[in-house]
Predict the structure.
Amino acid sequence: MNAAIARTVGELAEVVQGRVYGDPQTIIRGIASIEDARSGDITFAESVRLLENAELSPASAILAPDSAGDGARGGLGARKTLIQVANPRLAFAQLLDVFAPEQYATREIHRTAVIGSDFRCGGNVSIGAHCVLGDNVRLGENVTIHPLAFIGDDVEIGDNTIVHPHVTLLRGTVVGRGCLLHAGVVLGADGFGYLTMGGKHRKVPQIGNVAVGDDVEIGSNTTVDRARTGTTRIGSGTKIDNLVHIGHNCEIGEDCIIVAQVGLAGGVEVGKNAIIAGQTGVKEQVKIGERAIIGAQTGVMGDVPAGAFVSGYGAKPHREVLRTAAAVNQLPGLLKKMREMERRLATLEGAGEEVSEDAA
């Protein structure tokens, strides 16, 4: 946390729209979990049960749920200054913004940056050491480019976007406002396109681009390929984890969640508010509907309807996958019963044969 930041409990309560019980002038210099909290920190307890643990921590104040009662005066929570809120987890996230260190304090273009012709930028822009910017680059207001980034020709970056070290934005990439690109992101590399003739693979030129909407976050070492023709699109509000691959001509809708190690082949369409869990692979040209949920390690070989929850290889309905897994777990017991029935049947058949011989 930024040690230079200090706020009173009363000031923090205004940020989260909470009610203070205890001393509103208590000085808070940091924010931490219950396990890591020290004197001068504020922590959070999202349930009455966790409030007991928070009381025993060194923290100077607690974000507590409304369900704790009227400030828990005289009871649970009485030993600490409290800020009571409807959603302590959300309030904790809001206060993390308050105590977060500056992403990049210097507001200047470093003398070692290399910038091409016809460069235009808004006010309050930062470009770090040893960055390289191509020709015809456009930066909005308050854009931050950390050291060692590469920004290619004809790239556009919107207001308040942050580009971390070693990010590569290749020719024609467009990034919207308020985006966050983590270290090692590559936007606009060639799509994986080849034509096989006579056993040889001929490269098919990829002449499109990548366009990222507003308020998009893309995790470290994630790659989004340029379109063969046209545009590979990432919708506004979408959040993408580390180590994700998005192929050429994909269309990702607004406010999607794509978790680590997902791979989308070329031409995949993902509807808004869809969730794709980790290590999922999606076949080319597949359409995933709005609000669909794809479970972890799923192999998606065909279209997924809107609102569906699928998992497993072949992306079957999740309930069906769970029933199948439960049935598989019962197989050892069923086999044991079957063997016992076979043994008993053999015994009965043997007894029947003896009776038949006696009758003869």
